[in-house]
């Protein structure tokens, strides 16, 4: 095993925020994977790997609760919600029953899932996450009437945190890129990487191409031209690379060892009660073998939110919210 370079670090990927004609404290609906999940997998029959509702996760969360976030504390969705004036991100779909809760937004994310449904079998795949959102939309409609419900949804923010697993786990299959990135002529990935280390080496040029040639051009034109939505695309790969290259600038001193884990770089096993954790968690990049610490979730959320277009395109989240 090369390093604890996590899927996050290799991180292909993307927070995509879409906002339709919204104001500041709008409902937030979240679709995504373990970087965004806050408890939807807790009662699912999935491998331990796709769960985190046990110590030492959550050790810095208010009340030291292991909610199902893959973090020592908050995750990135929580921080974006906080910058928007909420105390915390929206609750997980699995525990959301009250209309009042739904009006503030719902988190549908499921650790292990991908943009493609065949990524992460057994997790709540993307199609199901979207269906779950539709169920919430229907409930809102029944309770509030169609016009009011439509207005609420049309003025909501959607946070989509996805793709890391599609690419890092299995989607070196060409059809992934061809079917999901529409200008895929530009987007083939040269060779299937053989090891994690290899993956890291291949992924940057490949994804630079995907993101810059494919996503930002095709998707942005399509979004703005054909729909009523505006969006902000945050390049997590670029953010985490910058932190790893210049950690001191960001107050981080350890970008190699996971805080909670065991084995080489503390990155060979999952964070559970059976392993130890570090005390200087704010100095660490990695909380566990795949996920960042709350400190890094905060830094990257700040980058995405307040960014002057180094990491976000075509606008930052703040501009997304203010421009409405
Ligand atoms: C997606 O999830 C649904 C519901 O669990 C399941 O029926 C479907 O087979 C899944 N799709 C894939 C490709 O795994
Ligand atoms: C912790 O260790 C015990 C004893 O070896 C084992 O039975 C248990 O499954 C382990 N728990 C986890 C979460 O790995």
TrEMBL record:
<keyword id="KW-0378">Hydrolase</keyword>
<keyword id="KW-0732">Signal</keyword>
<dbReference type="GO" id="GO:0016788">
    <property type="term" value="F:hydrolase activity, acting on ester bonds"/>
</dbReference>
<dbReference type="InterPro" id="IPR036514">
    <property type="entry name" value="SGNH_hydro_sf"/>
</dbReference>
<protein>
    <submittedName>
        <fullName>GDSL esterase/lipase</fullName>
    </submittedName>
</protein>
<comment type="similarity">
    <text>Belongs to the 'GDSL' lipolytic enzyme family.</text>
</comment>
<feature type="signal peptide">
    <location>
        <begin position="1"/>
        <end position="24"/>
    </location>
</feature>
<keyword id="KW-0442">Lipid degradation</keyword>
<dbReference type="InterPro" id="IPR051058">
    <property type="entry name" value="GDSL_Est/Lipase"/>
</dbReference>
<dbReference type="InterPro" id="IPR001087">
    <property type="entry name" value="GDSL"/>
</dbReference>
<dbReference type="Pfam" id="PF00657">
    <property type="entry name" value="Lipase_GDSL"/>
</dbReference>
<dbReference type="GO" id="GO:0016042">
    <property type="term" value="P:lipid catabolic process"/>
</dbReference>
<keyword id="KW-0443">Lipid metabolism</keyword>
């Amino acid at each position: 095993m090369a390093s604890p370079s996590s899927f996050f670090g290799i991180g292909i990927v993307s927070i995509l925020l879409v906002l339709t004609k919204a104001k500041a404290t709008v409902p937030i609906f979240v679709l995504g994977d373990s970087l965004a999940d806050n408890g939807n997998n807790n009662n699912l029959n999935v491998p331990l790997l796709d769960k985190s509702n046990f110590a030492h996760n959550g050790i810095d969360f208010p009340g030291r609760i292991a909610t199902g976030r893959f973090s020592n504390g908050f995750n990135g969705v929580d921080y974006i919600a906080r910058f928007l004036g909420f105390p915390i991100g929206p609750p997980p779909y699995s525990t959301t029953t009250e209309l009042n809760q739904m009006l503030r937004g719902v988190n549908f994310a499921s650790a292990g899932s991908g943009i493609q449904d065949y990524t992460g079998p057994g997790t709540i795949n993307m199609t199901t996450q979207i269906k779950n959102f539709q169920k919430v939309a229907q409930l809102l409609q029944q309770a509030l009437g169609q016009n009011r419900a439509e207005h609420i949804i049309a003025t909501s923010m959607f946070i989509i945190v996805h793709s890391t697993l599609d690419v890092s786990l299995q989607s070196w299959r060409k059809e992934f890129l061809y079917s999901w990135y529409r200008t895929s002529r530009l987007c083939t990935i040269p060779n299937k990487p053989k090891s994690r280390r290899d993956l890291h080496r291949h992924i940057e040029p490949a994804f630079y191409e995907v993101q810059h040639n494919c996503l930002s051009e095709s998707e942005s034109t399509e979004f703005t031209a054909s729909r009523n939505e505006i969006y902000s695309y945050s390049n997590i790969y670029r953010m985490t690379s910058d932190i790893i290259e210049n950690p001191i600038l960001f107050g981080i001193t350890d970008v190699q060892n996971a805080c909670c884990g065991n084995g080489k770089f503390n990155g060979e096993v999952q964070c559970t009660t059976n392993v130890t954790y570090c005390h200087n968690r704010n100095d660490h990049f990695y909380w566990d073998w795949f996920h960042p610490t709350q400190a890094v979730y905060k830094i990257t959320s700040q980058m995405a939110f307040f960014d002057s277009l180094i990491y976000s395109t075509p606008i930052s989240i703040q501009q997304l919210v203010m421009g409405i």
